[in-house]
Each structure stands twice: as structure tokens, then as C-alpha cells.
Amino acid sequence: MSNGPVFNIDLAAFHADPYPTLKEMRATNPIAYVPQLDAILMSKRADIFKFEKMTDVFSSVQPDGLMVKLMGQNMMRKDGEDHMAERRAIFPTVSPKTVKNVWLEQFAASATEILDSITGKGHGDLVRDFAMPLSADALRAMTGLTNMARTEMDRVSQGMIDGCSNFSGNSKVTANCHDCTASVDRHINEMLPILRANPDYSLLSSQLQSGLSEAQYRANIKLVISGGQNEPRDVIAGAIWALLTHPEQRERVENGPATWLQVFEEYTRWNSPIGMSPRRITRRFDIGEISLEPEDKVFFMFSSANRDEDFFKTGERFDLAHDTGPSIAFGAGPHFCAGAWAARALIAKIALPMVFERLKNLRISDVTAKPVGWAFRGIPELLCEWDC
């Protein structure tokens, strides 16, 4: 166990809004053991940026971690060549070229169909009615699980996320996660003969063509679903909410000089959809007077890094004038999110410009809406109105 300082948190308050607590940590104990999470939290951007690259000490290999136990050992829980080999296997699916030439047209078609179905209603929940189905359609296409319904894609994603962040050991959450992984396996089983006979650019097909083992491709599909549904869903809904609650920023993007890509980058900095990434300490390692010991659990707090005062003087504000270059919303090392390019395309090129163009005079009807969560952060519901 590390000899570092102990920092206690209020779990309920941390779930509702972790940022005040993380600000205090940065100021007083930037590397500290948090008993309520049974982990050492790193809250400074410089530390995370440096140590995430030191995979020989801060390892992603976590055989006893919740993700591995519940979903299998995917590429995010591997280091070195084992990790890179699987990233190379999925690159044909997520490369910028494939996103531009294959997926972008499908993203646009899905957004058009969804918006056609809701424009005339004049009101709705833009999480359930827009962000969720659009993210699900994108993920169905990219994974190759086109046989999975939109609502099931959202359900299994959330169920696996809940399972992987179930640090309190709630048995119902664990059971639901097992049900969700079983559903993914059934859908994979149905698609295997189809994709073997008709290969395409999907994740399942790319992994089959690369020769990855059954355990590898199943675990990686579950990984991509667990993050690839909730993250775009939460960023789409969250960015809409941010613009609607910051009219001066909305004006800047709709009438210039800001861009939709700036909205994407600033929102993911301001309310990081993935708040942390866990690591396992492989050997004794000293950081100043703090000694980390083998098997210590460390959480790299991306959410805290992205509001670090050393890099973002007004980081608590949503402001499209910010330089988001130092943001590490998608990681900073070899585990940088492989789907980041696809997420940028889906959200900045399709989702945000289309929703504000199609839903005239878009406005929030429930002013209490706001993001929640610390490991994963998103808006549960976004009730809005617009002119028919």
C-alpha cells in the first residue's frame, strides 16, 4: 500500500459533480489514496500525461479488474506488443480513411432518418430520441452487429459500463452485466457466418480477417460497445445542453467564428465523458516522497486533468475560445482512444450541425438537466422543445 496521503470523499456528491472535489485534490493532495474508491487518484495533468506512457510501471494489465472479469481481457487491458497487435487488427475499421469513405455517409443517413421522425413533434428527450439512436446506429454499423436493435445496443452498453464501475459490488449490477455480455455474444454468433461469407469494414469482420482468436474478438467487441455507445451519446446530448445553456457560445458557433469541431473538443474537455482510466502498479515506484507499491490501484483522473489550472486558467467555464490542445479527454499514451476519429466525425460533422439546423428555435424545457457521474459522465435526460 502506498504511503501517500489519504483523501476522503463524499461518494454521492462525487457522483453528482466530481469537479469541486477534484479541484481541492489538485490544490492539496494531487496524488492521494481515496478509501471510498480503494484507489490512488492522480489529479494533475502533468503527472497523468507523463505516467500514462510508463506502462512498465503503470500497467493496463489487470487480471483481477472488473472489466476483465466481466468482459474478458480486451486490448485496453493489455500493454506493449500485445496491445499494439490488436490495435493494428482494428485499424481498418477506425482509420480516418475508412471513417471518411465508409462510415460518414452512414452516419448522415441515420441522423436524417432520426430527425425526420422527430422534427414534427415539436418536443422530446434528445438523449432518448436523438443521441441514443444515432450513437447506436453508428455502433451497429461499425461493430458489424447490425442484427442488434438500437435499444438493445444502448442497454448492453450501459449494463457493461455499470458493471465495470461497480466498485461497491452490487450483485444486481453484476448479474445485469452478465446478461448484457451474453446478449452481445448471441448477436456475435448470429453475425459470424454472414461476415465470414461477406467481409466488410466492420470491427468484427476486421478482427476475423486479421486472425485474432475468438476470445480476443469477443472481448474487443464488448469493449467497443461499452464505450462506443455511451461516449458519443453523452457528448452529443451534453454538447447540445452546453450550447443551449450558454447562448453566447451558441451564437459563436452558429454565426462564426467558432466551429462544430471546437464545440466537440471543448465539451469533451469541460465534461470528460470518460472521467478516469485505471492502472495497476507493477513495482515499487517513488514520486517525490510518495512510494507506490506493487499491485496498488491508480486512477488517472482525465476529468481533473482537463480542468487543471496549470493548463486551463478558466477551465471551469465552457468557452469555445479555450485552447483545447492540452486536453487529454481521449488519453495521452499508447491507449489513446482508437475511436476518437470516428467520434469527431459523427458528432462534429453530423450530429451537432444537423440537430441545430433541423430543430428550429431549439430550447430546453427542463432547466434542471445536467451531467452526472465521475467515471463516466453524461446527461440522463434532455427535455427540449422546438418549432414545428
CATH 4th-level superfamily: Cytochrome P450
CATH T-level fold name: Cytochrome p450
Termini separation comes to 60 Å
Give the amount of beta strand, in percent.
5-15%
Number of strands: 10
The CATH class: Mainly Alpha
- Counting H and I runs of at least 4 residues, what is the number of helices? 16
Low-confidence stretches: none
Let me know the largest β-sheet: 5 strands, mixed
Topology order in helix (H) and strand (E) letters: HHEEHEHHHEHHHHHHHHEEEEHHEE
Q: How many discrete structural domains? A: 1
Oligomer: single chain
Globular, elongated, flat, extended or rod-shaped: what is the shape?
globular
* Proportion of residues in helical segments: 40-55%
Report what the structure shows.
The protein is of the alpha+beta class. It has 16 helices and 10 strands. 48% of the residues are buried. Strands 1-2-8-5-3 form a 5-stranded mixed β-sheet. It has helices at 11-16, 19-28, 45-51, 66-71, 80-94, 96-118, 127-143, 150-164, 171-197, 203-210, 214-228, 230-245, 247-254, 260-270, 302-305, 340-358, and strands at residues 31-34, 39-42, 58-59, 123-125, 277-281, 285-287, 290-292, 297-300, 360-364, 383-387. The chain has a single domain (11-387), classed as Orthogonal Bundle (Cytochrome p450).
Helix/strand layout:
Layout: H1 11-16, H2 19-28, E1 31-34, E2 39-42, H3 45-51, E3 58-59, H4 66-71, H5 80-94, H6 96-118, E4 123-125, H7 127-143, H8 150-164, H9 171-197, H10 203-210, H11 214-228, H12 230-245, H13 247-254, H14 260-270, E5 277-281, E6 285-287, E7 290-292, E8 297-300, H15 302-305, H16 340-358, E9 360-364, E10 383-387
